[in-house]
């Protein structure tokens, strides 16, 4: 096979942080192979070097940047039927690009981000006219895949400036590293100036600071670096400092006995009270991924070295904790069901004193013989057994999940298709909480009633994460099925933010239309399925050093 070595890597003398394997990984990504290899195999980072690439940046076509189905498409890991699809772009793709471009926000003449929704029909704008950091991620990936990295670079640099602000909620000063949930461009027509206004949680509902923003920022910086081959951005003192500030917030020592990150309810995509306080899977998976991305980009200089060491230690403990205690499959469930309680000492099997009676009834039917998932939360005497999409997909992409666990997560999705995908991919979590539990957990939140919004609603944005996970685990046909479902409704329904109901059949009660991340999520899913080599920008290869056997919690097990 012939490999065309693409854009060279520049590295400053002090940039010694990339290990041999990371270095190799990046080099391979930058290599754009020329020939098409037709082979069916699991598609992880490893295979990035041996698939065909559909061509460089800036292909002609829509807006001079987008060419539907243009260029040579890879057939690797894609069933023949979907390969056929990739040559025949779906008619809604063009509409999606137009809608995405309409959501662009400019700052001093340069595109800087995309607003959360461009819904003219909606009476209340609330904060949907802002650029949300987490919402911008799928937009950014779409632009990167389409050869438009400048907007991503601008976003990364400007959000760094926002991070530099002094952040206060009442009289309390937030940590230096906090990244905003969202920001807005303010126009002063009189003075003819534009300024940025950011929200770090001080205006948010519930006043929660977003823990995920900083992690997404680091993950996006790596995606930019990996796609463009431009390492100079990540190497700037500003980006290095930005990363260190985010990291010092989450690597600081406290009283915690767990390597997971302690959080307030609503500090992530689920930004309202939903019982996701403590150690929510979404944050733990993003934390893990951000740590791994930072490890690849941090310089081993005087300031960076200390962080590199801390990250390595934390990753080791975090992966062990997550793979052992958050993991649930048929066997684990059966073991927990038979747990003894009140075990004192180091040899305790039931370490967190989980009372088997707290296992909810639905779980016994839901758990297939084949398949498994990372549960929502683990803390003393509390296991939140709900399934959350984002955390599980990120666990696959970051290789927090072992290869076996990744396969099991995908098996579960196939086995429980109706529950998790239904008529619109993808449930944000499963199942919904109802009645008394809903009152207690959500505080009677009328937006989060059962099977709506964050409480078991279906979010099209999650399609890109599902697709990426499918490609990584070599099961593109699952993504194909899900995309087909989405294509039947999304344009017709005006790109809603979410769908309601057990099957996700109804446009969400209070869903915005023309929700940008629903649009971008669809485009990213589409482009990734057509050209799986895009996966590398958002996926990390397994780190063998981290691989530890999952604990078998049989009664005979001792520490
Ligand atoms: C809602 C979602 C949040 C998203 C925001 C903007 O608040 O819960 O995840 O970032 O809308 O779309």
Automatic annotation (TrEMBL):
GO terms for molecular function: endo-alpha-N-acetylgalactosaminidase activity; sucrose alpha-glucosidase activity. InterPro entries: 6-hairpin_glycosidase_sf, 6hp_glycosidase-like_sf, Glyco_hydro_100. One of its GO terms (biological process) is sucrose catabolic process. It comes from the Eukaryota. Keywords: Carbohydrate metabolism, Glycosidase, Hydrolase. Its EC number is 3.2.1.26. It catalyses: Hydrolysis of terminal non-reducing beta-D-fructofuranoside residues in beta-D-fructofuranosides. Belongs to the glycosyl hydrolase 100 family. Invertase that cleaves sucrose into glucose and fructose. This is Alkaline/neutral invertase. It comes from Digitaria exilis.
């Amino acid at each position: 096979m012939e490999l065309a070595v693409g854009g060279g890597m520049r590295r400053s003398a002090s940039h010694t942080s990339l290990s041999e394997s990371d270095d190799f990984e990046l080099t391979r990504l930058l290599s754009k192979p020329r020939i098409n290899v037709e082979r069916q195999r699991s598609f992880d980072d490893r295979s990035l070097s041996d698939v065909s690439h559909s061509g460089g940046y800036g292909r002609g076509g829509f807006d001079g940047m987008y060419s539907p189905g243009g260029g040579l498409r890879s057939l690797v890991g894609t069933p023949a039927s979907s390969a056929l699809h990739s040559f025949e772009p779906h008619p809604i793709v063009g509409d999606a690009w137009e809608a995405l471009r309409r959501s662009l926000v400019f700052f001093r003449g340069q595109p800087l981000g995309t607003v959360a929704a461009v819904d003219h029909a909606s009476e209340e704008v609330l904060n949907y006219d802002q650029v949300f950091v987490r919402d911008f991620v799928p937009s950014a990936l779409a632009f990167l895949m389409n050869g438009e990295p400048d907007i991503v670079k601008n976003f990364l640099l400007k959000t760094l400036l926002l991070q530099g602000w002094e952040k206060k909620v009442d009289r309390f000063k937030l940590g230096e590293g906090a990244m905003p949930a969202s920001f807005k461009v303010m126009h002063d027509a009189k003075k003819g100036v534009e300024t940025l206004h950011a929200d770090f949680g001080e205006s948010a509902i519930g006043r929660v600071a977003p823990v995920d923003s900083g992690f997404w920022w680091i993950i996006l910086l790596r995606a930019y670096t990996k796609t463009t081959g431009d390492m100079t951005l990540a190497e700037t003192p500003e980006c290095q400092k930005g990363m260190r500030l985010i990291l010092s917030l989450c690597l600081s020592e406290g009283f915690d006995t767990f390597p997971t990150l302690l959080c307030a309810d609503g500090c992530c995509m689920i930004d309202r009270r939903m019982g996701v306080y403590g150690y929510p899977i979404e944050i733990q998976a993003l934390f893990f991924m951000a740590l791994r991305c930072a490890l690849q980009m941090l310089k081993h200089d005087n300031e960076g070295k200390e962080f590199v060491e801390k990250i390595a230690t934390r990753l080791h403990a975090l992966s062990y904790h997550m793979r052992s205690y958050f993991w649930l499959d048929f066997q684990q469930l059966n073991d927990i069901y038979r747990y003894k309680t009140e075990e004192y000492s180091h040899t305790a099997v039931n370490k967190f004193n989980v009372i088997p009676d707290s296992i909810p009834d639905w779980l016994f039917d839901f758990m297939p013989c084949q398949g498994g998932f990372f549960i929502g939360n683990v803390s003393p005497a509390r296991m939140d057994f709900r399934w959350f999409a984002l955390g599980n997909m990120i666990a696959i992409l970051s290789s927090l999940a072992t290869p076996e666990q990744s396969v099991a997560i995908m098996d579960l999705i196939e086995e429980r298709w109706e529950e998790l995908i239904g008529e619109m991919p993808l449930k944000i979590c499963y199942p919904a909480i109802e009645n008394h539990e809903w009152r207690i957990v959500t505080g009677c939140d009328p937006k989060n009633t059962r099977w709506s919004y964050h409480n078991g609603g279906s979010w099209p944005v999650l399609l890109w994460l599902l697709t990426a996970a499918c490609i990584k685990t070599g099961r593109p046909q699952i993504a194909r099925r899900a995309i087909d479902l989405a294509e039947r409704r999304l344009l017709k329904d005006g790109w809603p933010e979410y769908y309601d109901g057990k099957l996700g059949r109804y446009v969400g009660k209070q869903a915005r239309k023309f929700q940008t991340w629903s649009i971008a999520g669809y485009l990213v899913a589409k482009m990734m399925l057509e050209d799986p080599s895009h996966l590398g920008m958002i996926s990390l290869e397994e780190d063998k050093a981290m691989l530890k056997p999952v604990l078998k919690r049989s009664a005979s097990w001792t520490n």
